[in-house]
Amino acid sequence: MVAEGRSDAVLGNPATAVAWLAGKVESFGVRLRKGDIVLPGSCTFAVEARAGDEFVADFTGLGLVRLSFE
């Protein structure tokens, strides 16, 4: 295991981060719209990736995501 984290590490709740972002970009005349993809932050620190590395994220109750670099 490289890192583990909880979603509440992102401003207490990822939805809070998205709400903050919506307010911030609105001050620039931009509005978030239904269907927009928003990445609200990371629950862990950044990890350097190199060719041959593989990462697996286990989201409790949702499943796994696997990413490999060639």
TrEMBL record:
GO molecular function, one term: 2-oxopent-4-enoate hydratase activity
Xref: SUPFAM superfamilies: FAH
GO cellular component, one term: cytoplasm
Keywords, comma-separated and alphabetical: Lyase
Enzyme class: lyase
Entry protein name: Putative hydratase
InterPro entries: Fumarylacetoacetase_C_sf (IPR036663), Hydratase-Decarb/MhpD_sf (IPR050772)
PANTHER family: 2-KETO-4-PENTENOATE HYDRATASE (PTHR30143:SF0), ACID HYDRATASE (PTHR30143)
Tagged with keyword Coiled coil: no
EC annotation from Swiss-Prot or TrEMBL: 4.2.1.80
Natural source organism: Mycobacterium tuberculosis
